[in-house]
Amino acid sequence: MSLFPVARDATAAKRAPASALPPPSGCWRLAWQWPGSGEASLLISRRSALANAGLLLALLVASGVYLALGSVHLAPRALVAALVGQGDALAQFMVIELRLPRLVAAWLTGAAFAVAGCLMQTLARNRLATPGIIGIDNGATAFAVASLVGLGVSLAPPAMALAGAATAAAITFGLTAGGGSRGYRFIVAGIGVGAVFGAITQLLLARVDMDTANAAYPWTVGTLNARPPGALLVLGVGLAVGVVMALQLSRALSLMRFSEAIAQGLGSRVARRRWQVLGVSVLLTGLAVAVAGPVGMVGLIGPEIARALSCRRGVPIIASMLAGALVMVLADLVGRVLLAPIELPVGIVTAVVGGPWLLWILLRPHRSLA
User: Fold this and answer.
1) Is residue 234 part of a domain?
2) Angle (deg, nearest 10), helices 100-124 and 298-309
3) CB-based contacts of 265: which residues, under 8 Å, 6+ apart?
4) Start-to-end CA span in the chain (Å)
5) Predicted confidence (pLDDT) per residue in 171-196, tens digit
6) Residue 306 included in any domain
C-alpha cells in the first residue's frame, strides 16, 4: 500500500491527456492530436458559442429581409432566383446592383464600428469610450471631407480618414497623458477633441460652393447609399486584419480589465498592448468612416448587445462584430422603408436609437467594465 496516494493520483492526472479531463463548467473542450507534438485542446464557452450562433442567424434573416424589402418588394422565391442570376431582370437589377452592395457595406461598416467600440471600451474600462464619443469618428470625418472639398489634398478618402482617426486619437491620448486611457478625464478630453473636429468639418463645408458641400454632406451624417467598391474592398481587408489582431489581443484585453499593476504581474506588457489596441481601433474606425461616415452609435450598441449575450469572462470580439453588423443592417433597412420614398440616412436612425441607449447607460449606477 502506498503512503502517498494523493501524490500518485496527482501525477497520474498530470500525465492524463486533456481529453480525459472534464471541461470546466459552462465550457466545451475540443481536443486533437498534432503529429509529433502530442495533444492540444481548446475550451469554448457554451454561452458565447450559442450567442454567436444566434447573432449569425439573426443577421442572415435580417439580410434576407433587407434584400426583399424596398421600393420593389420581392417574394422569397423571386429573391433567391435573383441572387443566382435567374428570374425577372428588374428583380436581378434591384438585388444584385442596388441592394446587395449596400448590404455588404452595412455588414462591413457595422462590424468595424462595433469591434472598434468593444476594443476602446475594454481599454478604458468604460462603456462610454467608443470611437464616436471620444472624437475618433469626427477626426476621420474631418479629414475625409477635406479630401472631398478640394483642398489640394491628393490622398483618397480612406487614407485621409485613417490619418484623421489617428490624429484625433493621438490628441486625446496626449491631453490625458497624466491620467492614461481610463476614467472620465479621457472621455471628456475625447468629447472636446471631437467637438473641435466637428467644427472644422462644418467650416470646410461652409467655405465651398453648394454642389461640393452637397457631395460631401453624406460624410457628416452617415449613409450607405452608393458606396465606392474600392473603399468596400479596402474596408473588407482591413476588417479581416483587425479582427484577427483583436482576437490575438483578447487575453491581454481580459487582463487589462484589472489594474495596471495586476496586469503587469500576470505577464502583460500593458503599454505595448494599449498602443496595439489603439492602433486596431483607429484602423477599423478610419476605414469604416471612409465608407459610411460617422455612424458612431453602432460602436456603443453593438458591444452592449454582445456583452449581454456572451460569457462575461472574455472580451466578445466575434459577438460584437456580428451584433454591429446586425444593428447596421436593421438601421439602414428602417431608414429605407420607414418613410419611403423618402430615405433616412443610417446615421440619423442610429442616433435616434442610440441616444436613449446612451442616457440609459449614463443613468445606470455601474458603468465600469472591470
Assistant:
1) yes
2) 70
3) none
4) 50
5) 888 887 655 555 577 788 888 999 99
6) yes
